Amino acid sequence: MSVLTGLIDILRWIIAVPLLLISLYFIYTNLKFLFQNIQVGFNAGPAAFTLFGGLAGCLGIIIVPYMDIGDRLIYLWVPLVLDLGSIPFYASMIILAIWQHINKDIWKNYFPKKTSHTQ
Questions:
Q1: What DSSP assignment string belongs to the chain?
Q2: Quick check: 23 and 60 in contact, CB under 8 A?
Q3: Which tens digits make up the pLDDT trace of 5-33?
Q4: Quick one: pLDDT band at residue 61, thresholds 50, 70, 90?
Q5: Which among 17, 16, 15, 38 has a CA at the least distance from the CA of 84?
Q6: Rounded distance, CA 54 to CA 36, Å?
Q7: How do the domains of the chain map onto residue ranges?
Q8: 68 has a pLDDT exceeding 80
Q9: Residue 113, Ramachandran bin (φ over 0: left; ψ between -120 and 50: alpha; else beta)
């Protein structure tokens, strides 16, 4: 291993570790935020930054020089699933939108639009 390769590996660790720590921070913060919302009855809004923790974790996994790139690509889904502001948030928003659309169509059958009978 040459000196240049060793320096590049050190640089990759220097970049990857903060990205992974940022991802862990967002995973922890979003979990804490969820539990606080449960305690107050879901009165608070969504997390301020969505996708940031999951993407930072993915970048950290790609950059870290621990395994071959093919072996690391298998684990790219982990930060996106663990960070509630990433895939779980957007999946729940899609499900909610579909559910609201289905319910809106159901209620149209029971409450048709009123027509005005003005002359």
A1: --HHHHHHHHHHHHHHHHHHHHHHHHHHHHHHHHHHHHHTTS-S---SSSSHHHHHHHHHHHH--SS-HHHHHTTTHHHHHHSTTSHHHHHHHHHHHHHHHHHHHHHHHHSPPPPP---
A2: yes
A3: 889 999 999 999 999 999 999 989 888 88
A4: very high
A5: 38
A6: 21
A7: 3-86
A8: yes
A9: beta
